[in-house]
Design brief:
Elements: E1 4-9, H1 16-27, E2 37-42, H2 45-57, E3 63-66, H3 83-86, E4 92-95, H4 98-104, H5 108-120, E5 124-129, H6 132-141, H7 144-147, E6 153-156, H8 173-187, E7 193-196, H9 204-208, E8 215-218, H10 225-233
Parallel strand pairs: 1-2, 1-8, 2-3, 3-4, 4-5, 5-6, 6-7, 7-8
The structure holds 2-phosphoglycolic acid.
2-phosphoglycolic acid binds at residues 9, 157, 162-163, 196-199, 217-221.
Amino acid sequence: MKKLFIVANWKSNKTISESLQWLQEMSQSQLTSSDAREIIVCPSFTVLSEMKKFISENNLPIKLGTQDISPFAEGAYTGAIAARQAAELVTHAIIGHSERRKYFHETDEDVIAEVKQLLANKITPILCVSDMQQMDYFLAHDPVIVDHADEIIFVYEPPSAISGGGAFHPETPEDANKNAAAISEKIGKRVITLYGGSVNPDSSATLFAQENIDGGLIGQASLKTDMFINIIKSFS
Ligand code: PGA
């Protein structure tokens, strides 16, 4: 059976106490660690330190990630968090999310610079790809993504499928599988590729069963532990 990657993207949600409550519920769910899956939770920077402490004290099978990273190294960049700083707290970082592009005007060049910063600091990039034009841009402008494809978790996430906190409307499993496969084809070898956009307990099993999909980037359905646990269990 293939290894499954379940990534929670909490977006701008949860205070410290709410995050610890979520972890408390996860710890009561008897979720055992398994070589067949990785659970990576990406909350806001404000809660990472407390969550890291809780996870280690309670020996939970959960890794932590950020939702963004500075395209620059440490230095005079007000408000930005550099990969070297984040590396004290996380093993992963979501980059290139379409909401970062839409609301914070991040560009493909920024995303390429972020990949480099993360790799240099041994943080695994979880690289969101909205469509294949974006992949074409990445590949045409810099070799880093192809050269380090084995160190990157790719996510095919069409912006039109993101729930935005409203109704779930995932892409069809067939289309999601086809587009996930296209990422590997463009790289020139099979790479780890997740699907994102309205993954929920009703759709996760079918999506994760697709040949080219290795798990999911989960927004709204990761905020409540019962839904998130059902998604984790949907393919184990
Ligand atoms: P959603 O969000 O699961 O709520 O659609 C996914 C994402 O934006 O990463």
